[in-house]
Amino acid sequence: MNKRTALITGATQGIGYYFSRIMARNKVDLVLIDKNEDHLLELALDLYQRYGVRVKFIPFDMSKNNAPFVVYNDIIKDGFHIDYLINNAGVGDGGYFHEIDWEKEREMINLNVVCLVQLTKLILNDMVKLGKGRVLNVASTAAFQPGPNMAVYHATKAFVLSFSEAIANELKNSGITVTALCPDPKQSGLQHLAEIEVNKLLKMRKLPKDWEVAEFGFHSMIEGKTVAVNGFMNRLLLNTMRLFRKSTPGHPYAKYPVSNNE
Ligand SMILES: NC(=O)c1ccc[n+]([C@@H]2O[C@H](COP(=O)([O-])OP(=O)(O)OC[C@H]3O[C@@H](n4cnc5c(N)ncnc54)[C@H](OP(=O)(O)O)[C@@H]3O)[C@@H](O)[C@H]2O)c1
Questions:
Q1: Which InterPro entries match (predicted)?
Q2: Which atom of ligand 1 is nearest to the CA of 141?
């Protein structure tokens, strides 16, 4: 049987928890990464018992230097090939940039950006050799505009969106797709962590639940969408904002995509 494997970071809570369930439900073996070993063990046992999938879990702080390298060596040693890479782990923080503790921001940049890029590079190399694979990078609607009081968080998510779109373009016709999932903010989770007040507009809207975000992200990844924004109004608003922020139609190099087939 053609077994497939998904690697999910930030696998035990929030959106990542539902990615883990969706993948297991689809009979995909799992490599789950998170900080808390007890949470990982509990989830791994549950998914194995319910769906009979093979689950490897790695308790690791992915904001540490070279964490992706350590994790990658561990999964290769155990003979895993990753078919689906879900770069989900991310943290946020809020407040005036000049007042926020640098260590917190360093960790945020390391996790949201450095870990995501390094893990993608390591795993993409193997995917390219086989000519197939799916990458899902969790960005945010925050990626579309600068975020006063959450300056670094917004900037990390803008990076994830830009990076994902660029490599999706490079990988055109390679059999590999890259999707940037851009969820709305929730009224809990990161927002709570960042102590950010939910604005009136958001309060009036029905915000999607974690499981809805994960289902939407999963289907967008399978369809090979490059940018996945949930909801017609959201897409309209964000794309309009993008249109007006760009005075030129992109960088001139964008006309010369790198092809893997050459
Ligand atoms: N929440 C929102 O409003 C929102 C909106 C748009 C996009 N997003 C993005 O969606 C993704 C998931 O967010 P979420 O709200 O589902 O987050 P969450 O509920 O806070 O869960 C994040 C998961 O990542 C793990 N994690 C945190 N730091 C880690 C590290 N250094 N190394 C390994 N694992 C780590 C957490 O483990 P512990 O529980 O042990 O800390 C937790 O299991 C993030 O990339 C986030 O930026 C979130």
A1: NAD(P)-bd_dom_sf, SDR_fam
A2: 6
Q: Which residue has the higher pLDDT, 243 or 12?
A: 12
How many angstroms is it from 209 CA to the middle of ligand 1?
14
Establish whether 153 is a catalytic residue.
Answer: yes
Give the distance between the most distant pair of CA atoms in the chain.
Answer: 55
Residue ranges of the domains in the chain? 5-255
Q: How far is the CA of 26 from the centre of ligand 1 (A)?
A: 23
> Quick one: 5-255 is in which CATH superfamily?
NAD(P)-binding Rossmann-like Domain (3.40.50.720)
- Residue 205 has what pLDDT? 66
Separation between Cα atoms, residue 64 and residue 94, nearest integer Å = 21
Ligand 1 touching residue 150 (CB < 6 A): no
